[in-house]
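hi! just following up on the protien thing from before. the input was this:
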Amino acid sequence: MTGKVRAFLEGVGSLMNLFPGPEQFEKFQLKGSPEERLAEHWRRVGGYLRSAMDGYGDAECEHREPTPAREESRTGR
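and the predicted 3d structure came back as:
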């Protein structure tokens, strides 16, 4: 059964279930404490920022070629 058909049938079946049991909602329950969930969120944000910064730095290095004027300003000569 394809995913769309299965989802449709589960939706229709859930309409007929007037008194659902708690086991049907286990997949929607949050896992871990609020502090743990927030820490995991910030770990992912840090990973996204790190990969973006690495990609930016790599792209910047590829497009730049050292020029004499830039070298002089860096070395102070």
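DSSP finds three helices and no strands in the chain.
The chain has a mean pLDDT of 80.
cheers
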